[in-house]
Amino acid sequence: MNTAEWGRLIIYVGLASAVGATVIFALAARQQQWLHWARRVYLLAVVCTVAAFGVLVALCMRSDFRVVYVANFSSSDLPWYYKMSSAWAGQEGSFLLWAFWTALLGLLLMRRLKQYEQLAMAVYSSILAFLMAILTKQSPFLLYPPSEAPPEGMGLNPLLQNYWMAIHPPVIFIGFAALGIPFSIAVAALLRKDWDGWARVTMPFVILCWLTLGAGIILGGYWAYVTLGWGGFWGWDPVENSSLVPWLIVTGLMHGLIVQRVRGGLHRSNLLLALLGAPLFFYGTYMTRSGALAEASVHAFDALAKGALGLVIAMLLTYTIGGLGLWLLRLRAIPAKQTAEGVLSLDLAFSLGIIALVVIAGLTLIGASMPVLSLLIAKQSSAVDISYYHLANAPFAYVMLLLLGIVPFLSWRKVDNSDVFIQRLSGPWYATLLVGIAVAVASYFLRLPVALGVFFFLLLATFTIFSNVVLVWRLARHNKMSVGGYLAHVGVGLVLLGSAASIFYEQKAQAVLTNSSSAKLLGFQVSYAGMTHPDGELGKNNAVRLKFESLNGDESFEARPVYYFDTHNPMQPRRVAGPHVHKHLLYDLYIAIGSDGAGVIERVEDRGKSLTIRRGETKKMDDYTIHFKGFKIEGHMGDSDLRVGAVLDVEYKGKKTQLVPEAVLGKEVKPANLPGGGQVVLFPDEINANERMVILRFVGMPGQTVMPDHLLVPVEVKKKPLINLVWLGTILMMVGGGIAMRRRFAELAEEQQVAVAAPVPAAKQRDKSRPKPAPGLTGGQ
Amino acid sequence: MKKAYLFAIGFIALGLFMAGRAMIQTIVPYVSVAQARQSDGKVQVKGQLVPGSVQMDPVRMQTRFMIQDAQGDRLFVVHPKLAQGNIEDATEVVAIGRMAGDAFVAERILYKCPSKYQGKQMQEYQESAP
């Protein structure tokens, strides 16, 4: 047996032990003595999953092209780290990565579950079992028949050869795997009818999930920004949406659990949110990998093998129906305590914030599902424009920002004295007002674009940043561990401020450079200075050298946008173009060759002199007098070989002739020979039948200078102000989340120790031991 | 308490109303070439790229090509920028835009190349948009 066959075998053993763990953990819920065995069987499943992943990585590292997966996604000339990352570049590998993290997180989880262990681990192991089953149907360990194994692999997609892309999947899949944790614990809680204990156990894991999923999304966005060349980091793509929606739900859950912990409310909605995250990601997996969107769009991926797809659907249905069904069944038993004491209370702010997050998730989900939904509802498939996501989500985003801005000054109890509230608010408020006036004045004098909606959005984001910075500052002096949440809120404000400003105030300019001409773009003189690998082949890692010199002489640099042909698949050389990002503190210059990184055009067809003429008109062109009599059309509109001719009466040195240059649409042109040398040509795209107008092209005429073939480099430069705030914001979000996670894990450990020391229910113990938060200093509760 | 509830419900209702309006404003139907010719709003047309029909025009910053839909109807598409990547090798193209005379002006195009790459992220299709 060779290594790949071992891999297949290990997957089967892993599947069997994950199924076994599910069953034995469930048994252990009734009979404690099974628990010991359940843990061991689960451990075996973990060993198998880790080993299978290890085998795949090893096969990729060894460039074993007898394995179909390795031949498809790797090649022997890759550096070791990209060989390794090709292990998760494909469909099968990414499922294995998902299983790998699911298995490992289970170990972390198992130790902290205590009385939840049996039921929660039974549910959690079943998720692992599903993933392993999918991997038996869509195996990364398939072998070519010995005679057909290719000598070299197709190589890793050049777009993925980027260190951000190498670490994005491993990070984001921790998040996807972690989505199963709140789900499993919530199911256990519903079965045990324990409405508070589960929230404490779940809390740190929910933050872990939020953190890794969020970091993964950000890494993906940053990768898109520096590699794809269209200049943005978020495109509301189905794949992006399928990770954003669960992340928003988890964000809502995280806040709901805080309310439950401090005020003892929101039991029902927290359980519901915990049950929604994982199924929503299964749904996204199904949508993006099933070809369900392929009916209507090219957005879909290579479809999964039939058996594997069936399992994804089974997984989606099992956990959606199982989770929601159980929740509905228990709904009346779950306590519904109303806690909000007034309009100006933290309870209401949290609730509204959670609602806003959930609604944004829902609207995004509906938008992403539209191609399928519209087919079901209206029998006509439709998709929404990207602007839908902005328009639909905007009202909720405004509310969310406003809430984030005032939350630091609210307390759980009703604010009796609204003067105090207003007084606390006044600092950030006046600071924001000043910024607002400054932006307004700057807009007026610098003639910046103005839109009221964007202006208020920017101000609300600024307000959020100021308020939370003030609170972080105050909290940090008392208890450093309590600043996490508010630090993350500063990050959210920065991300939203940076993205809105970088999109709205973006400036762009484009020009076509040649060997000999330069252009003025956004205050720079830009010229083409050759290729970095000028030996003609445009081999790997070639870049175009563009010299930028600012017009006022302060700055000059050479931009090197990547441009080469990837030839791993000799039948389809693939053009690879990537942008060059020239960073400044306050803005980025985003330089792409071609608009959207199209690339260099080596040769251009010279279309010659043009003459625009309507039917019935007579015009002069050099020595020719031309009368356009009308069209001659053969075939029907829409035919593949529709021929359109322009009937011309041409007079040249007193002699009249009739010429009919023709165009066969989509195929070729049939020029007509001019008396006196040269030709008149009609191009299919230069016929305007509605206006009865054509553009005639004259080539090869005496005395006409023909432009020589040369290199044309279309350059697009975008100036993106304040984009760095987005990256700074994401870092703060992650640091804040990290602090909060540490704090909650520490709390959980402490509570579980207390619970062991004294057999008093942990909930009561806590309420006595912890002082009520002081108003206005509710940090991170 | 009542007040808080009303507040929340009013907020959701208003938001959903605006979201519904946004949906109506931004929905773009998938149509055949024949339907596209009749349409006067924004539509998306999916078709096979007619081989050899791609013209990149760096002077006017345009990409022009023909697509043929499942019914065999052809449509001449003008995209007002130079498309990214290997549109020449594309098989399927989705053009999003509106008719202008006999030509279809596509503000966005998505296209799929017959590539062996089948990874999990965006490489499956390429996109060009302003």
Keywords for this structure?
heterodimer, A: 781 residues, alpha+beta, 5 domains, 19 helices, 53% helix, globular, B: 130 residues, OB fold (Dihydrolipoamide Acetyltransferase, E2P), 8 strands, elongated
Account of the 3D structure:
The complex is a heterodimer of chains A (781) and B (130). Chain A is of the alpha+beta class and 781 residues long. Chain A has 19 helices and 21 strands. Chain A has helices at 3-30, 35-61, 68-73, 80-85, 91-110, 117-137, 163-178, 180-192, 197-227, 238-263, 267-289, 306-330, 346-378, 386-406, 418-445, 452-478, 484-504, 723-757, 762-769, and strands spanning 382-384, 507-513, 518-521, 524-531, 544-550, 556-559, 562-566, 574-578, 580-583, 587-593, 609-614, 618-621, 624-634, 643-652, 655-659, 662-664, 668-670, 672-673, 679-688, 693-699, 713-721. In chain A, strands 12, 13, 14, 15, 16 and 17 form a six-stranded antiparallel β-sheet that branches. A four-stranded antiparallel β-sheet of chain A has the order 2-21-10-9, covered by helices on one side. A four-stranded antiparallel β-sheet of chain A has the order 3-4-5-6, with no helix packed on it. Chain B is α+β, with helices and mostly antiparallel strands. Chain B has two helices and eight strands. Chain B has helices at residues 2-26, 33-38; strands spanning 27-31, 43-49, 55-57, 62-68, 74-79, 92-100, 103-112, 125-128. The longest helix of chain B is centred in the N-terminal third of the chain and has 25 residues, at 2-26. Chain B is elongated, with a radius of gyration of 19 Å. The termini of chain B are far apart. Classes of the chains: A alpha+beta (781), B alpha+beta (130). Chains A and B meet through helix 13, strand 1, helix 14, strand 8 and strand 19 of A and helix 1, strand 1, strand 4, strand 5 and strand 6 of B. Strand 1 of chain A pairs antiparallel with strand 1 (27-31) of chain B.
